[in-house]
Design a protein that fits this description.
α11 crosses α17. This protein starts with 8 loop residues before the first helix and ends with a helix. The model is unreliable at 1-6, 495-499, 540-551 and 680-688 (pLDDT under 50). The protein is built from 23 helices and 17 strands. It is of the alpha/beta class and 688 residues long. Strands 6, 7, 8, 9, 10, 11 and 12 form a 7-stranded mixed β-sheet that branches. Strands 2-1-5-4-3 form a 5-stranded antiparallel β-sheet, with helices on both faces. The chain has helices at residues 9-32, 35-58, 63-69, 73-80, 83-108, 111-171, 194-198, 202-205, 219-234, 280-333, 340-364, 377-383, 385-391, 413-430, 449-453, 480-483, 502-511, 566-578, 589-598, 617-627, 641-648, 663-675, 681-684; strands at residues 174-179, 187-190, 239-246, 252-263, 269-278, 373-375, 396-401, 408-411, 436-447, 464-473, 515-520, 526-535, 558-562, 582-586, 603-609, 633-637, 655-658. The chain is elongated.
């Protein structure tokens, strides 16, 4: 018996597995290697089999082994008699012998068959490699297909975004751009809106085009545009600009631009990007709104100043009534050789000048028209030629440029003369004692609303035919600030102490439903253009009516004198009493109505003031006619007859006299009213 070996079943099976692995390795080497390696592998297999056989033959399984492994002897015996334990060594030897025989047989095969077997092995290996590579390629191809699908989706989305962006930009009312930051702003991208905005196509103004956007900007605005862009770029913020461009068809447009600078990763400016849109309509609307606001402010100013001027003229006229009336009475009482007569005559002269000032105040208030009728401007200016020649500087040359066939205008000839005189004197002073020319031009033109909007006093004047006269000079001219103030009362660029001047001119033009325009620049002279509505009525003679004298006429009866000014009441009473009338007075319309109601049949005439407290002249006249419809009423007012005729048209007013009036004029007015009870002064067209 050999050495006892104590093997557990686990150890036994582990040795079997190890032996099988060695056998497989050796057979594999025999199958794949050359003859020498194969013989070495066969030898190793034989030795391994023999060692395994010896191991099984030398194992003694006794009581000590059973005690060692914890099995009972019978259990050990049963284990050793199991078929796999009894026949395993024999089976192993048989398998080994078959393997060796197969190897030797393989080695003895012809070379062609060996090569065929080898090729089959290579084919199997190649097939395995191809299958693996095919699977790898299939997976790669699937991944590539997925990438292509994702790329197609991205490209489709990009194209859709580009299409949507192009559609959006083409529908925007403006120009989206990308350009370089140079003064001529060459475009690297422009949207389709450039054609509607600039008149140039994308090919003309876009990349590679022959037109740079900077060339379209009005030269006066280019520096402001450049400064605004650079300020935004330097501060890295959005810039917003409003400026003018000139389109391909030479149309000037206002545009609004908003953009910003585009910088790269290094912080360097690459380009400008932004949007430009046409705001011409909005700009014109803003200008129109500003013009209307200025016009409203001017109208409000004129209205307020007109009310002030009218109020001053009214009160001043009442004072002048007392001055002129008492001066006339004093002249009547003084003898021709009285030394005081000359002094009183100076008082009358000064009062007349003061009355002229009140007429200017009324003219400024727009209520200064006295005698309205058709006037030929050419004839009126010709009649003033001598007066104009002596009113201007000796170094000034006065020239006339009359248009033939000039239509007439409905105007007060005396006030139109005042306009011409004021403008001529103003032009003469503008020459500043230097040699120069003053030109008076007349003409007729068809005016539309756009042209009338550019005039002063455009109070919604209608389209139509207008007669104009211009007074131009070659004097010093005016700047914009001066032009804005020349129509303010008592404003002057010459010596102080001037009168209303151009303010009165403005009021007269306003009262005639006309307009006036001023063209002037410093050093280039000034032109005043006055527009008056033309009429088809033939022009009347421009002479003023002769003064009315009182004569030796005397009346009888009772006259009711109504005026809120005590001086006027006192003076009127003295004048009327000296003419043979009995006079009763009232301080306002309410008192006058009460006095008239008490004795309606004894009062032959009522001298009624228009503006009074408690009850005004218009309301008082209405109450008087209710008491006696055929009442003879002569109205007196500081306003003009035109204003009164608008209020009392068709109401059978017997007469009208404007303050300040003289004694002879008052008596003549009363005489006409009493001698023509069935007619009225306003309906007859009498002007006193």
């Amino acid at each position: 018996m050999g050495t006892f070996h104590y093997l557990t079943p686990t150890t036994y099976w582990a040795l079997v597995v190890i032996w099988c692995a060695i056998l497989f390795f050796c057979v594999r080497r025999l199958w794949r290697r050359d003859i020498a390696s194969s013989l070495l592998s066969v030898l190793l297999i034989v030795l391994t089999i023999d060692a395994l056989r010896t191991l099984f033959e030398s194992v003694y399984f006794g009581a000590r082994y059973s005690a060692f492994v914890g099995w009972l002897p019978q259990e050990v015996y049963d284990f050793l008699n199991r078929p796999e334990i009894v026949f395993l060594p024999k089976a192993v030897h048989l398998l080994a012998a078959i393997a060796i025989f197969a190897i030797i047989l393989r080695r003895w095969l012809p070379r062609e068959e060996q090569e065929l077997l080898r090729m089959r092995d290579y084919a199997s290996q190649l097939k395995a490699l191809v299958d693996a590579r095919t699977q790898e390629l299939r997976e790669t191809n699937e991944a590539l297909h997925r990438d292509i699908e994702r790329r197609i989706e991205v490209e489709t989305a990009l194209k859709e975004n580009q299409r949507a962006m192009a559609t959006l930009l083409s529908n925007l009312p403006g120009l989206a751009y990308r350009c370089l930051n140079t003064p001529d702003y060459p475009m690297t991208f422009t949207s389709e809106g450039c054609l509607a905005l600039t008149g140039y196509t994308v090919e003309q103004i876009g990349p590679g085009g022959t037109i740079n956007y900077g060339d379209l900007v009005i030269p006066e605005d280019r520096q402001a545009v450049w400064d605004g862009v650079q300020e935004g770029v330097n501060n890295r913020r959005t810039f917003t600009l409003t400026y003018r461009i000139r389109t391909a068809d030479a149309v000037e447009k206002w545009v609004w631009e908003q953009g910003c600078g585009i910088f790269n990763a290094e912080g360097e400016l690459e380009a400008l990007e932004g949007f430009i849109t046409d705001v011409t309509a909005r700009k014109r609307a803003e200008e129109e709104r500003s013009r209307l606001e200025a016009q409203v402010q001017q109208a409000q100013k004129l209205e307020s100043l007109g009310v002030l001027a009218g109020g001053i003229a009214h009160d001043f006229n009442n004072l002048l009534v007392g001055i002129l009336g008492n001066a006339d009475l004093a002249l009547d009482e003084l003898g021709p050789s009285s030394p005081a007569r000359a002094t009183v005559q100076e008082i009358v002269t000064a009062a007349k000048r003061a009355a002229e000032l009140t007429r200017q105040l009324l003219a400024y208030s727009g209520k200064g028209r006295f005698i309205i009728g058709p006037v030929d401007i050419n004839d009126l200016v010709r009649e003033m030629a001598h007066l104009l020649d002596v009113s201007i500087s000796k170094k000034a040359l006065l020239r006339y440029n009359f248009a033939s066939g000039l239509p007439a205008v409905m105007a007060d000839a005396s006030q139109i003369r005042q306009i011409v005189m004021n403008l001529i004197v103003n032009a003469s002073e503008a020459l500043e004692e230097k040699s120069g020319a003053i030109v008076i031009t007349t003409g007729v033109m068809q005016c539309d609303r756009d042209y009338l909007k550019s005039m002063h006093l455009d109070e919604d004047l209608p389209d139509g035919l207008y007669v104009y006269f211009e007074v131009s000079d070659t004097g010093c001219g005016m700047d914009a600030e001066t032009r804005d103030r020349i129509f303010d009362p008592f404003f002057t660029t010459k010596f102080t102490g001037r009168g209303l001047g151009l303010a009165a001119v403005l009021g007269i033009v306003r009262g005639h439903n006309g307009a006036i325009k001023v063209y002037s620049e410093p050093g280039r002279g000034t032109t005043f253009k006055v527009l008056l509505p033309a009429v088809e009525t033939p022009a009347a003679c421009g002479h003023e009516p002769h003064a009315v004298t009182g004569g030796a006429w005397r009346g009888s009866g009772t006259i009711l004198l109504v005026d809120d000014e005590p001086t006027v009441r006192a003076l009127g009473t003295r004048i009327l009493q000296r003419a043979g009338f009995e006079v009763i007075t009232a301080r306002d319309g309410r008192e006058a109505v009460d006095l008239f109601r008490a004795q309606p049949d004894t009062i032959v005439c009522v001298l009624l003031d228009l503006t009074m407290p408690r009850l005004g002249g218009e309301d008082a006249y209405r109450e008087l006619r209710r008491i006696r419809p055929d009442v003879c009423v002569v109205l007196s007012s500081g306003y003009n007859e035109q204003e009164v005729s608008q209020r009392f048209a068709g109401k059978k007013l017997a007469g009208f006299i404007q303050k300040p009036y003289r004694a002879a004029v008052l008596l003549e007015t009363i005489r006409r009213a009493l001698e023509s009870p069935g007619d009225t002064a306003i309906e007859r067209g009498d002007s006193l």
